[in-house]
Amino acid sequence: MGDLFSEAQVLMLRGLSAEAAPLQQEARRLMYVELERNPGDLEAKRALGSLLYGLGSTLTSAEQPDQALEALTECTGVYEELHELGEPDMLPLIADVHARTALVLSSLGRGVSAVIESDQAVTAYLELGADDLTHPLNLDLARVLALNADVLYGYGDRDLAVCSADWAVRYYLSKAEAINSGPPAESFMHGRYLRGAAGIAARVHTEQGRPEIALAAGATEVHSARVMALPNAPQDLAHLAAALTRHGLGLRAADRTDEGAELIREGRETDPAAATEATRVWESLTGQSTGKRDAGQGGRPPSMSFSAALTAAAGILGDDRVPSVLRDLAFDPADRATTVVPSLRCTTQTAPAVATLLAELTVALLHDPDPAAAPTAGLLGREAHYLFAAASRAQVMSMRYEFRVYGADWARMLLALIPAFEGSPGGQVIAEDLTGWLAGITLGLQPFALIDETTGRLVADCHTLVTRLGR
Q1: Beta strands in 171-293 (DSSP E)
Q2: Residue 294 CB: number of other CB atoms within 10 A?
Q3: What gap in Å lies between CA 223 and CA 245, rounded to an integer?
Q4: Is the pTM of this model over 0.85?
Q5: pLDDT attached to residue 290
Q6: Is the dihedral of CA 15, 19, 25, 30 positive or negative?
Q7: Whole-angstrom distance between the N-terminal and C-terminal Cα of the chain?
Q8: Rounded CA gap, 471 and 466, in Å?
Q9: Residues of the chain where predicted confidence (pLDDT) is lower than 70
Q10: Which pLDDT belongs to residue 228?
Q11: How many whole angstroms separate alpha carbon 465 and alpha carbon 416?
Q12: pLDDT at position 303, please?
């Protein structure tokens, strides 16, 4: 069995994931046969979990995300069973499966579920104390924070995304000597995550008007991108070209014209298409134009951040409609803030109440005719959903014993939010993702529908929507 798994690993390192997957599938089958004969073999179960995790990675590389998600879900079950049986050191492994699952869900466009999986991965490492620089899991936390930043950049709050990216970069830079002296495969892996985190930090700080911090992050991205591009892989060269171009444009905007022009020239020579796209992205982040602007694009785009959404909500509905407790949740990402996932916005015990306030604000925005109301509601509604989900996962007392109230608030918000996503460009998959959650909430409310007419009508409305979207 060990020889078979080693062969699959070699194939993955060579990039032949299509060939590795059948070997791993066969190894999985043989392991289940072994476990049927000896169900109490914990070592075999650990090996099965490791194999399933590897299979999830292989299938992801082979662009088979649905099958990868199935393998990773199976892996989570194996690792959680081992943890319940008292096997040591399972929590970091479970966290890593959540992180890998977040990547796969993100690739499928299921960003809401991706953020929740990533949240679980980060919080698990934080609960283990990995934010201490001397902790042996500190580099693992850096890796997971980089991944978390990527997921949040696409589907969550940009303030959270940049905080997560900044901390990943800080941890990586503090561990530079250890990374550089470590095994080449590990160094290369961490280099990729550093490159990604620095790139997100540079883009968000640029977007939010912090050019000096953006330039520092951009320089780190360029440096790591150069190292990653040494093997001349096309994808890494494209990333280098984009990093060079964005950083060059930032330098030029900071009146460091010659330096900027040289990097822009190098980016165009490295990969013209990637450099052109990077220019477009930089223009969209800054509202500046270095050439011809797309039709309909004018001025600086609104920042997709929680704090900006609250400001927008106050402008649309009036200051008095945004509770001060929600304003207190906003923070300055440049002030070494440590809020890196949605569940850390408030205490777990207060999350249901805070989520309800956000849900009410979301529904009010969705009923407002202002064109800016819908995208604002989309961000605030997802943040409410993340807090409800975190409280439910933690089995907070109010979610367990007052689900008739908080579950109803959650469901009413999703009933309003899902159609809004369904009718927005690119929002169909998010609508379907949220519908999957609504199906579970509806099931939890079902017992109350039998004794309460209002809940019964709500459950009927939820069931209609869930049925229509095929869940």
Answers
A1: none
A2: 10
A3: 13
A4: yes
A5: 42
A6: negative
A7: 39
A8: 5
A9: 1-19, 288-303, 471
A10: 95
A11: 10
A12: 53
